[in-house]
């Protein structure tokens, strides 16, 4: 499309420029004829001005005299109007037709960027963020960060994107760098805490908890860390504190459609737990990805057996996937951790061994597997 | 797609400009009408393509397309639409595209409306225009390309210098550039005449209106710049003799000279060679102005040396065009036929006087502007030639000129009678003297020269009025006859009178505000009062407010004169978040006597603010004068009256002169 426009523009320009070379030339007034014409126009203007009373009779006469004198001088000039020579317009036209596109193309290929589309802000903001785009986006930002590794803002921008595509290790690393470069801003701390929770399959460990608490202390208006903290209280069985947290949240998000219903439900559920009655059933959101807030919430609503079963199913699915395609270090790490959490130590050891075999040629991966093993207290 | 189309169009325009430069000139040398005829579609196509590129760039600004580096660096999505548009020419790259757009527009104008020009004159003119286009398009594309892309595109731009986010400065550059580039027309015609070794009848007819239009635009452009500096920079000054200001003032001075000498040439066929030289000088100064402002040489000669790509390119353009034009002038000017003869005391003589002084004054400004740069580059010593230099050189130089202005229009062409002119200006002189006496009487303080300066301004205005009165035979014929004559006066007479009176108004404004401005810099707490020039200002305090892309502290003053409240003043300080900088917005109350001008300073301890209040007497007259000059130029421009010399007193004398030849 772009090149068709360029072609049309160039063709139109060439057509316009070359037409005079092939035209008949028309009636060309000679130089003295043109000058005489100017003087005759001026004489006419004097007459019309005099008729309209713009200048007096005497001035008009004097002006006429002056112009007539100049007109006469023009007539006297030797009439050496050479017959208009037509050179060789054909080779000239060919030269132009060849040279112009070459010059223009040469410059454009040097300075232009034909591969880049327009990116008006409004359109960009409305575009759905599909996976393809995200991967491309990440690649570009990564390239930029490779050049400028101390660009804290760059790390802060890319960190949540890593998390959203479940590249947790990179996401956590990006958050750590952003916090180091930009200082412990509450939004960064909140993002980091969230990322820790997601990376940990939805469990809020003490480290994440501490970071989230700090974020909320620095900026009490942050919603997501408060939600995670409230969940973690529920996970720990501390329903009293959970209810208190949900209540605080309620006043914070009461005008926010994204959170208000969730908070309402959680308050009801937590209070019910506090009273010992069964929780009301809320709508359960389905999610294709791993456990997100919705899954965690769904898991919370189940009886312990049902919950355990759900987790077993998920772990089973993961194990199956890794059997088919083992080239997923994060998947293996998660599987090992899950078995350990489910107290299936043997399975955990087997998975660890399989993973080590898979990544036997990658020292970095092996190191991470080993450190996980020592953290969980298992060895293959 | 739009951005890349714009980029391609700009490059295609360069290709066309090359053809426009080469073929018509070659054709005119070989007397080949077909080759010369290429100039017309080339100039038109060049304009259309540059316009396409400009519109593409503007689209990118309006839609905040941050994939274009230039947009990213100079815009932000939060900016109001007006400043998104004006942001296009608020930066180096975009302003150069605007420069070329105006150049191409004028070229297309000559191509489209110049059919009555002799073919070879038109071809040569367009060829020179093409050459200027080639130089600047090449400069833009290779060193200042506004279409450089950014990949990946950021989601927010770096914003636009807040000081420039202002209505006056939004339209200032287009006027300024129309002025600069308008002089390129006179330049092209001058070079065309030199190439041909002859000056056609249509020459002055075309050059003068073009020069006039350029001069008008430059006048308004400079006035807008000065007005903006007055209310935006927060010091109440209207002219700083800053190199950037001087850069536009120099072409204005020599352009004013060119305007007057073109008048002589058009009407009397005299001063041809001088007019051609002036046309070259004026455009050269426009190039110098572009160079000074655009090369970075002003910030520091050394910064220029570090990144010289742009500066050296413009320096090259200047060397080729100025050097080439002067060389061509030295070689070909002797071929031109000299025109009419005139006595020293005559309209022509007066205009030569005007030209000499204007050019000398321009030279003084030139030295004052460039000497520090030259010194710094040679000796590493950084000096600043401030206002004192210009006050001691420029001002004494132009004083005799201003004194002589009213005389000029009274003098007859060819041979004038100074004594008779003096008689006719008696009334004006008396009025001016009376003004001096009155001002002396009522103004006890201030420099003793100030009343004389006011008298000079009054002299200019009264002299301009006298000319109209004389031509209409006021008090010499019946009232009806006077009225008939008055309304039938050629519009150019009104134009001359208005323009000269405009100079008078500006002079009065400059003198009054320089000599009698008062200022008061204090710390004020809410509820406190300060007094200046008969006004009493009560400070109510400061409140916060949010603008479209800034936050501001808004101060409130109630202004009293005597016991009655006149107005409220709200000077503000604005913080621009994206750009990370702040501006001061002065609050100005305008009365006939002058401007009350309040600026909010920084907060001090214990809740007080530093506040600056000025009273600038008659300061508005400076810009009103410029507008009056502009209107005068407009009247002259639309005068359809013949543009030939009409030595009305001397129909007989002319016959004798012709015999004598």
TrEMBL record, chain A:
Its main location: other. The chain crosses the membrane at residues 90-111. One of its GO terms (cellular component) is cell envelope. It holds the Pfam family TPR_CcmH_CycH. Coiled coil: none annotated. Residues 271-298 are annotated as: Disordered. It is found in: Cell envelope. InterPro entries: C-type_cytochrome_biogenesis (IPR051263), Cyt_c_biogenesis_CcmI (IPR017560), TPR-like_helical_dom_sf (IPR011990), TPR_CcmH_CycH (IPR056413). One of its GO terms (biological process) is cytochrome complex assembly. SUPFAM superfamilies: TPR-like (SSF48452). Residues 122-257 form the Cytochrome c-type biogenesis protein H TPR domain. Keywords: Cytochrome c-type biogenesis, Membrane, Repeat, TPR repeat, Transmembrane, Transmembrane helix. This is Formate-dependent nitrite reductase complex subunit NrfG. It comes from Methyloligella halotolerans. The lineage of its organism: Bacteria, Pseudomonadati, Pseudomonadota, Alphaproteobacteria, Hyphomicrobiales.
Automatic annotation (TrEMBL), chain B:
The keyword Membrane applies. Its main location: membrane. It is found in: Cell inner membrane. It is a multi-pass membrane protein. Residues 89-295 form the Cytochrome c assembly protein domain. Residues 315-640 form the Cytochrome c-type biogenesis protein CcmF C-terminal domain. One of its GO terms (cellular component) is plasma membrane. The chain crosses the membrane at residues 6-26, 38-62, 96-114, 121-141, 175-195, 207-229, 249-266, 273-292, 312-331, 352-374, 394-413, 425-442, 448-470, 494-516, 618-638. GO terms for biological process: cytochrome complex assembly. Keywords: Cell inner membrane, Cell membrane, Cytochrome c-type biogenesis, Membrane, Transmembrane, Transmembrane helix. It comes from the Bacteria. GO terms for molecular function: heme binding; heme transmembrane transporter activity. Pfam families: CcmF_C, Cytochrom_C_asm. Belongs to the CcmF/CycK/Ccl1/NrfE/CcsA family. Required for the biogenesis of c-type cytochromes. Possible subunit of a heme lyase. This is Cytochrome c-type biogenesis protein CcmF. It comes from Methyloligella halotolerans. The lineage of its organism: Bacteria, Pseudomonadati, Pseudomonadota, Alphaproteobacteria, Hyphomicrobiales.
């Amino acid at each position: 499309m772009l090149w068709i426009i360029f072609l049309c523009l160039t063709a139109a320009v060439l057509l316009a420029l070359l037409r005079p070379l092939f035209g008949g030339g028309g009636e060309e007034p000679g130089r003295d004829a043109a000058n005489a014409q100017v003087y005759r126009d001026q004489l006419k203007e004097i007459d019309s001005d005099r008729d309209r009373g713009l200048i007096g009779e005497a001035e008009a006469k004097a002006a006429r005299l002056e112009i007539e004198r100049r007109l006469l001088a023009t007539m006297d000039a030797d009439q050496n109007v050479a017959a208009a020579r037509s050179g060789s317009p054909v080779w000239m036209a060919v030269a132009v037709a060849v040279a112009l596109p070459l010059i223009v193309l040469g410059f454009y290929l040097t300075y232009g960027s034909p591969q880049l589309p327009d990116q008006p802000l409004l359109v960009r903001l409305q575009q759905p963020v599909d996976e393809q785009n995200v991967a491309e986006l990440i690649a570009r930002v990564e390239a930029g960060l490779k050049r400028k590794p101390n660009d804290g803002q760059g790390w802060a921008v890319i960190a949540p994107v890593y998390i959203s595509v479940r590249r947790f290790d990179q996401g956590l690393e990006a958050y750590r760098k952003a916090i180091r470069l930009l200082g412990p801003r509450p939004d960064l701390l909140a993002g980091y805490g969230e990322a820790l929770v997601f990376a940990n399959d939805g469990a809020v460990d003490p480290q994440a908890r501490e970071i989230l608490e700090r974020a909320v202390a620095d900026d009490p208006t942050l919603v997501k860390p408060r939600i995670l903290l409230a969940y973690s209280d529920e996970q720990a069985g501390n329903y009293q504190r959970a209810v208190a947290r949900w209540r605080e949240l309620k006043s914070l998000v009461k005008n926010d459609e994204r959170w208000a219903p969730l908070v309402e439900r959680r308050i009801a559920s937590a209070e019910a737990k506090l009273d010992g009655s069964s929780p009301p059933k809320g709508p359960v959101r389905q999610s294709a990805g791993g456990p997100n807030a919705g899954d965690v919430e769904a898991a919370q609503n189940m009886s312990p057996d049902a919950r355990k079963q759900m987790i077993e199913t998920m772990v089973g699915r993961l194990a199956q996937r890794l059997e088919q395609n083992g080239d997923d270090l994060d998947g293996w790490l998660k599987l090992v951790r899950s078995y350990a959490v489910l107290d299936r130590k043997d399975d955990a050891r087997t998975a660890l061994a399989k993973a080590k075999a898979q990544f036997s040629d990658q020292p970095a991966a092996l190191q991470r597997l080993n450190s996980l093993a020592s953290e969980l207290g298992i060895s293959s | 797609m739009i951005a890349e189309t714009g980029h391609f169009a700009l490059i295609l325009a360069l290709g066309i400009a090359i053809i426009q430069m080469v073929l018509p000139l070659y054709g005119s040398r070989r007397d080949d009408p077909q080759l010369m005829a290429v100039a017309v579609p080339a100039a038109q196509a060049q304009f259309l393509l540059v316009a396409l590129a400009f519109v593409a760039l503007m689209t990118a600004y309006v839609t905040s397309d941050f994939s274009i580096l230039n947009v990213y660096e100079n815009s932000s999505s939060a900016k109001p639409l007006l400043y998104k548009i004006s942001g296009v020419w608020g930066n180096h790259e975009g302003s150069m595209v605007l420069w070329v757009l105006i150049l191409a527009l004028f070229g297309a104008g000559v191509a489209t409306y110049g059919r009555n020009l002799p073919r070879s004159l038109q071809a040569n003119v367009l060829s020179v225009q093409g050459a200027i286009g080639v130089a600047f398009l090449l400069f833009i594309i290779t060193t200042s390309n506004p279409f450089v892309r950014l990949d990946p595109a950021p989601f927010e731009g770096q914003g636009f210098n807040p000081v420039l986010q202002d209505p006056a400065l939004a339209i200032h550059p287009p006027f300024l550039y129309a002025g600069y580039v308008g002089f390129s027309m006179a330049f092209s015609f001058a070079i065309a005449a030199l190439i041909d070794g002859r000056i056609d009848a249509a020459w002055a007819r075309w050059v003068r209106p073009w020069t006039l239009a350029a001069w008008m635009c430059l006048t308004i452009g400079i006035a807008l710049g000065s007005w903006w500096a007055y209310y935006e920079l927060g010091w109440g000054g209207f002219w700083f003799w800053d190199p950037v200001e001087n850069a536009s003032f120099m072409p204005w001075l020599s352009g004013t000279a060119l305007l007057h000498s073109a008048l002589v040439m058009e009407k009397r066929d005299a001063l041809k060679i001088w007019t051609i030289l002036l046309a070259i000088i004026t455009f050269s100064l426009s190039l110098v102005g572009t160079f000074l402002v655009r090369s970075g040489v002003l910030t520091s000669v050394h910064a220029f040396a570090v990144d010289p790509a742009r500066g050296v390119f413009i320096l090259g353009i200047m060397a080729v065009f100025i050097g080439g034009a002067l060389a061509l002038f030295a070689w070909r000017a002797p071929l031109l036929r000299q025109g009419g003869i005139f006595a020293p005391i005559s309209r022509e003589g007066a205009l030569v006087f005007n030209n000499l002084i204007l050019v000398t004054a321009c030279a003084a400004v030139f030295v004052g502007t460039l000497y520090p740069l030259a010194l710094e580059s040679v000796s590493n010593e950084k000096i600043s030639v401030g206002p004192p230099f210009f006050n001691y050189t420029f001002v004494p130089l132009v004083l005799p000129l201003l004194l002589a202005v009213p005389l000029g229009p009274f003098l007859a062409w060819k041979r004038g009678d100074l004594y008779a002119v003096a008689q006719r200006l008696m009334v004006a002189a008396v009025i001016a003297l009376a003004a001096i006496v009155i001002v002396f009487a009522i103004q006890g303080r201030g420099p003793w020269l100030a009343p004389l300066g006011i008298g000079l301004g009054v002299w200019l205005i009264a002299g301009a009025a006298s000319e109209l009165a004389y031509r209409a035979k006021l008090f010499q014929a019946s009232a009806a006859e006077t009225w008939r004559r008055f309304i039938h006066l050629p519009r150019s007479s009104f134009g001359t009178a208005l323009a000269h009176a405009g100079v008078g108004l500006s002079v009065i404004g400059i003198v009054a505000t320089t000599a009698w401005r008062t200022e008061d810099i204090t710390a004020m707490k809410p509820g406190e009062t300060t007094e200046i020039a008969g006004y009493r200002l009560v400070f109510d305090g400061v409140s916060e407010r949010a603008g479209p892309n800034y936050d501001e502290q808004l101060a409130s003053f109630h202004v009293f004169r005597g016991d009655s409240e006149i107005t409220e003043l709200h000077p503000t300080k604005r913080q621009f978040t994206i750009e990370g900088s702040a501006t001061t917005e002065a609050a100005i109350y305008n009365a006939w006597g002058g401007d009350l001008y309040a600026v909010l300073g920084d907060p001090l301890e214990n809740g007080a603010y530093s506040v600056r209040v000025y009273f600038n007497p008659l300061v508005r007259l400076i810009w009103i004068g410029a507008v009056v000059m502009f209107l005068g130029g407009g009247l002259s421009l639309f005068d359809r009256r013949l543009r030939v010399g009409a030595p009305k007193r001397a129909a007989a004398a002319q016959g004798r002169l012709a015999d004598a030849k």
